Amino acid sequence: MRVSTAWVADGGTGREWVPARLSSLMRPAVFFDRDDTLMEAGSLPAPPPPAAPGDVIDPALVCLLPGAYEACAALKRAGFVLVVVSNQGSVARGGATTAMVDAVNARLADLLGHSVIDAFYYCPFHPRGRVPAFTLEHPWRKPAPGMILAAAEDLGLDLSRSWLIGDAERDIEAGIAGGIDASRCLRVGASLPITHAVQRVLSNAHCC
Ligand SMILES: [Mg+2]
Predict the structure, then answer these.
(1) Alpha helices in 50-159 (DSSP H)
(2) This prediction's pTM
(3) Would the pLDDT of 152 be above 70?
């Protein structure tokens, strides 16, 4: 089942959002995890149940992690398509609606600068949810590669020249399962700040 959770910035105004469109161009992308990669999540106060700690359900709480803005700007200038791929099982658990996830994504896009992120994909499904429509295992849920494959198809991406940056092992597994070389799947954290990860991308990439 396909859900309408993929959006791209309107190339004309940069202020509006339209459904993702097919592209005939094969371009390299950098796939970003969202929570605790680009913005704070686990360090925020826990939201009320049934949302769980780490769920960001209020756009007012969106706060970029250090280096995220500069990282995305540098990659964009280098010609990469930037795609956010995020598990949002809070929807299945009843802790958030898809509209709330969209609002958080829109706030993140705003903070990063409109048109910097080309598309957001998220998976609202979880096999142990409370909301029947979203309670199932789904090929979009990382570590499965569904979001990456869907983005590649929608946006005409060359996965052989693409990268993935995330903070969790499931992010890395999803990238590799999607066909991104393991050396291009970077796990950020204390030992690899996002700024260093981006330097690695830029020093190895000939994307344009
Ligand atoms: Mg994360």
Answers:
(1) 68-77, 90-93, 98-112, 146-155
(2) 0.88
(3) yes
Over residues 108-136, the pLDDT tens digits come to 999 999 789 999 999 999 999 999 999 99
CB 78 within 8 A of CB 200: no
Residues with CB under 5 A from ligand 1 (ion): 33, 35-36, 167-168
* pLDDT, mean of residues 157-168: 97
The CB-side HSE value for 101 (13 A sphere, CA atoms) comes to: 28
Angle at 178 between CA 167 and CA 151, to 5 degrees: 90
How many Å lie between the centroid of ligand 1 and the Cα of residue 41?
A: 8
Q: In what order do the strands lie in the sheet with 7-9?
A: 17-19, 7-9, 119-123, 81-87, 29-32, 163-166, 185-187
Distance 205 CA to ligand 1 centre (A): 24
Identify the structural domains of the chain with CATH numbers, from first to last.
26-204 (3.40.50.1000)
User: Residue 117 burial by CB count (10 A; 0-12/13-18/19+): exposed, middle or buried?
Assistant: buried
d(CA 142, CA 144): 4
